[in-house]
Design goal:
heterodimer; A: 464 residues; alpha/beta; 11-stranded mixed beta sheet; 16 helices; 11 strands; globular; B: 100 residues; mainly alpha; two-stranded antiparallel sheet; 3 helices; 2 strands
Chain lengths: 464, 100
């Protein structure tokens, strides 16, 4: 889509203003029902589009993303704009700087349409934990779009934006991409700067694109990736991508038995059959420690969360609760401003890090993390990519999992191992079951992001 | 049988500096218990001699030059605008002790 739009802009078949207006129109028409956006930047977007049209009129050349509208998950800072992380505690917070990915997108000339809804502080798998109301799945308004980047996934699925950014800590790009029938890519940990992304779990978080094609996801990734001095966990990678036409995909049979909806398994088998005749070979692999990955994740992530969220104390920014003294102020501010899921994870984190439990939980989990990473490294000795579902279940109805936090966590079973190992992962839509989208993940080797995108592009074409 | 009591939950929230309501004290122990029960399965993982994953950060982390940054100075006004309460150009906070 992006290449087509770019050609139309250059040939003046379409103006940047028309393109932006058309997306703003779609938002105006559909978002009352879907609630993908928390804020829409109508005036700014139109002004930016006009500036780009002035460039085109002068015959100046245009970058591939110039004039292309994009939506951003509201845990990504845009200077001078409200950034809430879908939390009451940041309801009125105005960002004092641009996230590094935003600086890059601005340099590339992309038009920021606004901020999309998410589970509060990116914690959740349904966007039901947003303090400002849930987002609906455009394919079925009674079902969740997935989470935590539900708003961005829904925006792209509903045609409100051709591309969007989300963040992924345990599946928050890949799972909602599957639920909404769009492409969602989580880069290798360290490929994209986290500066200006409101931190959830610092050794897991990555920003990545939603799009309607692998090609478009790659264009956005290319614009935002790269080492950033403001993020010391980011790094530059020089990838050598081969031009092979045959790919070996690993299928972890044992792991797929863990409570996967048989209809999703069926859809995957269909996709495998189609791809099998177009240069893809499927090999069984083992991920023996994958069964521990979820438990491992839900120890380390709450620990990191409890540390990262201690900055929300009402002192320097955000809501401030009224209290008699400083410490009472912390307690009242945080009690009033933070939602239940966030509180639960902070409590869990405090528990697993506390004296007497640290060895049994946190240290053990860090060792299991090494085991899970090792399993993938071993598998990649014989395969190019690994196939996994993007979710064990089809998009569920609102309220179905809200009373059972553990049930909600179990939805992440196929996505968290990827974040534990810092690997790149991409969800592709592979069809529908009873009118609901089904997604499938392809996982790649650490730092082999462009190679994964190439494999995914070939798979996308093979099953079309 | 619960691994975690309302007293434990109270203590955890005290540590995390979050005031907890009666309703939450009734609800959280059960919810957190279920999660703790699940994560306890990690005890049966075959750890052997494996070393913990401490960090994914690259080896070559650079330090920046110890000099004033004009960029940071520009940002000071934006940071001050976000103060919930201020006095002249100072951040105003509640007194540390006393009150109640």
């Amino acid at each position: 889509m992006i290449h087509d739009l770019h050609k139309k802009l250059i040939s003046k078949e379409l103006s940047a203003r028309e393109l932006t207006d058309s997306h703003l129109g779609t938002i105006a028409g559909k978002d009352l029902a879907i609630h993908a956006f928390l804020e829409v930047y109508e005036d700014d977007a139109r002004r930016h589009a006009d500036r780009i049209d002035a460039k085109i009129a002068k015959g100046e050349s245009l970058g591939v993303l110039e004039g292309i509208p994009i939506a951003l998950k509201d845990n990504i800072l845009v200077e001078g704009k409200r950034t809430t992380a879908a939390s009451k505690i940041l309801e009125k917070y105005i960002a004092s700087y641009d996230a590094s990915v935003v600086s890059k997108l601005k340099t590339a000339g992309a038009i920021i349409l606004g901020k999309t809804n998410l589970d509060e502080f990116a914690m959740g798998g349904s966007t039901e934990n947003s303090a400002f109301g849930p987002t609906k799945n455009p394919h079925d308004l009674e079902r969740v779009p997935g989470g935590s980047s539900g708003g961005s996934a829904a925006a792209v699925a509903a045609g409100m934006a051709p591309v969007a950014l989300g963040s992924d800590t345990g599946g928050s790009i890949r799972q909602p991409a599957g639920f909404c029938g769009v492409v969602g890519f989580k880069p290798s940990y360290g490929r994209v700067s986290r500066s200006g992304l409101i931190a959830m779990a610092s050794s897991f978080d990555q920003i990545g694109p939603f799009a309607t094609s692998v090609e478009d996801a790659e264009i956005v990734f290319r614009a935002i990736e790269g080492k950033d001095s403001l993020d010391q966990t980011s790094t530059d990678i020089k990838e050598e991508v081969s031009d092979k036409k045959e790919f070996v995909i690993g299928v972890p049979e044992d792991f797929l038995k863990a409570g996967l909806d048989t209809r999703i398994r069926g859809a995957m088998e269909e996709a495998f059959k189609k791809a099998g005749s177009k240069g893809f070979r499927f090999e069984p692999i083992a991920l023996p420690n994958a069964e521990y990955a979820l438990a491992c994740y839900y120890i380390i992530v709450p620990a990191e969360v409890s540390s990262n969220l201690s900055r929300f104390d009402g002192v320097r920014y955000g809501v401030r609760g009224d209290a008699a003294n400083l410490f009472e102020g912390y307690k009242k501010t945080r009690a009033a401003g933070l939602g239940s899921e966030v509180k639960r994870r902070i409590a869990l984190g405090a528990y697993v890090l506390s004296h007497g439990y640290y060895d049994a939980f946190y240290l053990t989990a860090q060792k299991v993390r090494t085991l899970v990473t090792g399993d993938f490294e071993k598998a990649f000795e014989k395969v190019d990519a690994i196939a996994l579902p993007s979710s064990p279940a089809l998009p569920f109805k609102f309220g179905e999992k809200l009373n059972d936090p553990l049930a909600m966590y179990l939805e992440d079973i196929y996505t968290v191992p990827v974040n534990l190992a810092g690997l790149p992962g991409i969800t592709l839509p592979i069809g529908k079951v009873e009118n609901l989208p089904v997604g499938m993940q392809l996982i790649g080797k650490r730092f082999a992001d462009y190679a994964l995108l190439r494999t995914a592009g070939a798979f996308e074409e093979a099953i079309a | 049988m619960g691994m975690i009591t309302p007293e434990d939950v109270k203590r955890l929230f005290e540590l995390a500096k979050i005031e907890v309501t009666e309703e939450e004290l009734a609800r959280f122990p059960k919810e957190i218990d279920a999660i703790l029960e699940y994560i306890r399965k990690l005890q049966s993982a075959p750890l052997g001699e494996v070393s913990p994953t401490i960090s994914f950060a690259p080896e070559d982390r650079a330090l920046r030059v110890d000099a004033n940054s004009v960029e940071n100075a520009k940002r000071t006004d934006a940071l001050r605008d976000a103060f919930p309460e201020s006095f002249e150009h100072y951040l105003k906070v509640k007194k540390v002790f006393g009150g109640e």
